[in-house]
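Worked Example 4.2. Consider the chain below.
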Amino acid sequence: MHRGLHYMASGTTGQGDLKRAILELLRSDWEFRRAVAAELGLLEILERLAKIEERMARIEERLLKVEERIEEHTRAIRALQEQVRSLQEQVKVLQEQVKALQEQMVKLQEQVLEHSKAIRALQEQVAKLEERIEEHSRVIRGLQEELRRFGDRLAALGSRWGLYAEEAVRESLRRFLHEYFGVAQVGKWEYFDREGVVFGYPTLIEVDVVVKDDTHYLVEVKSSVSVADVKVFNEKCKLYQKVVKPPKTKKIIVTCYADDRAREAAKALDVEIITR
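Applying the procedure from the previous section yields the following structure tokens:
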């Protein structure tokens, strides 16, 4: 085949035929094409190109992955930017709130200062009032002492007056009994209560007694009557009934005044109250 080529190259016309023959062989003969490529160093170039293509393919894959990661990062960055904007808005709101709180704090401090002044003024007033109260307490203690002494004097005077009043009532009773019972004398029953039936301890018991027919009228004379007086008189009458054992008894209290509770007690204990 090389001799044919050499032969064909002997003339100008043959060069054109040679080119056509070589091109035909390159198109139709794979081994010839490979041999020519090897002679020209194209095979190594093709292999290197193939390797480069493989590397480019891997690089493209890596680039795709990088692009995907970049896209993810972009989305994350956008989300972070949104969060940052939201945080900035929150910070702005907080700053406004802090400013409002600071203003309130200033107002509160002013109010506290005013209240402190008012408290100091009130404390001064309280101190003055305490001094006045102490002074009034001394005056009140003095008045209480005077009232106590006056009460003692009044009690002594009242005791005397009570005796005088009861004596006057007793004199009135004599006239009343004379008119009411038709008798001139009122007897007095005296008995020493050793068992303390009436007062709870041994003492002398006295009861005015009027006897008419078979009825014993037990009479108590008081200038004024209380519930306690009615109860004590009733106990005296019970003791009289126990000791004397009369056929019939009637309990009477003669007084100038008896309050409502005393009258209720007398009604419950079957004691007649006569006011004169």
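The first strand starts at residue 187 and ends at 193. The radius of gyration is 70 Å. Compare this with Example 4.1 before moving on.
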